[in-house]
Amino acid sequence: MDNHEAWPDPPPGLLPNGLLPGEAASVIQALDSERWSKAEERTAELITCIQPNQPSEERRNAVANYVQRLIMKCFPCQVDIPPSISCFP
Fold first, then answer.
1. 84 Cβ contact partners less than 8 Å away, ≥ 6 residues apart
2. Distances 80 to 36, 54, 62 between C-alpha atoms, Å
3. CA neighbours closer than 13 Å in the CB half-sphere of residue 48
4. Which among 52, 78, 82 is positioned nearest to 64, based on CA atoms?
5. What is the value of pTM for the model shown?
6. Which residue, 23, 33, 53, 57, could crosslink 88 as a Cys pair with Cβ 3.0–4.6 Å?
């Protein structure tokens, strides 16, 4: 699998980013500092929206506990639930 030379070349006229050669310049442009700042701000907002909250942690724990009990009932083994990456205990 590590032999990259055996991989086929992409079809002619396509760039690795999926853009057509004549269209790449019209789509790709450097961000000025103001636009970059807005992009970072929006990214931070999105990240706070997708972080776990108390209800989602409770649901995650309920599912994990159910699966743990189910496995331990069917198989003679101990199952450890990995901790969530969250600020909730």
1. 52, 57, 60, 61
2. 43, 21, 14
3. 5
4. 82
5. 0.40
6. 57
**How far, in Å, CA of 62 to CA of 64, rounded?**
6
Spell out the domain ranges in the chain. Answer: 19-74
Say if CB 72 and CB 78 are below 8 A apart. yes
Which residue type, as a one-letter code, is found at position 78? Answer: Q
Tens digit of each residue's pLDDT, the chain (89 residues)? 455 556 666 666 655 666 666 666 666 667 788 888 888 999 888 887 877 778 888 888 899 889 889 988 888 888 787 776 555 54
